[in-house]
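dumping this here so i dont lose it
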């Protein structure tokens, strides 16, 4: 199945470069381009792409607001943030806005292509460095006094899986830690996302820390 991609960046040369990389792949198809956030949202509405490559700093509406709109209007389009700015404030804001991944523009082409495919498949891409900074960010926040009621819908095993997922562990690593099969963990993750109404693992990580289900430094 072909993955449909929209490229949103205010620099035409950058869009051209990304188009050349993506269009070269037989399973990827660039269906639209946008030079600002407004156009990105409109292109997503018109073409219903699987993935939008979203720049952050664009005129008019920036990429963060465009991402937030796409995540809240019922769109199934997923967003991969691509930026030259490796700043914590952008990472956290982008993830909370609903982005499914975050890469720097100087990442190798093969990493970009892998990220597109991973996100299109319904997973999320969080680079280890981003996960570490996300955890460090929550380490400086006070522990919440109340746990969201939605977490009560999870079984004890699902809460165990979510805690490990929040530490940035892959399905295989979680399976090894809990002495379960990979397929079982995949099923648990799918049920967790469905019960909590989350789009992907990124939002699950954020919720796990914001809710106090886990805290930085805890072994589980």
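and the seq i came up w/
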């Amino acid at each position: 199945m072909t993955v449909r991609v929209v490229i949103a960046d205010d620099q035409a040369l950058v869009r051209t470069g990304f188009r050349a990389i993506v269009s070269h792949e037989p399973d990827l198809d660039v269906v639209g381009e946008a030079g600002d956030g407004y156009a990105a949202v409109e292109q997503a509405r018109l073409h219903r792409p699987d993935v939008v490559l979203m720049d952050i700093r664009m005129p008019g509406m920036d990429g963060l607001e465009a991402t937030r709109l796409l995540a809240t209007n019922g769109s199934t389009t997923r967003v991969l943030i691509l930026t030259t700015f490796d700043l914590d404030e952008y990472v956290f804001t982008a993830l909370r806005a609903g982005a499914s991944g975050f890469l720097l523009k100087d990442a190798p082409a093969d990493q970009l292509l892998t990220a597109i495919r991973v996100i299109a498949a319904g997973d999320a891409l969080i680079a280890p460095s981003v996960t570490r900074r996300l955890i460090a960010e929550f380490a400086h926040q006070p522990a919440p006094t109340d746990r969201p009621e939605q977490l009560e819908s999870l079984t004890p095993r699902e809460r165990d899986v979510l805690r490990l997922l929040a530490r940035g562990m892959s399905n295989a690593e979680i399976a090894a830690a809990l002495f379960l099969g990979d397929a079982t963990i995949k099923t648990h993750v799918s049920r967790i996302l469905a019960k909590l109404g989350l789009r992907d693992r990124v939002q699950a990580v954020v919720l796990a820390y914001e809710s106090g289900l886990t805290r930085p430094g805890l072994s589980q």
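The radius of gyration is 17 Å.
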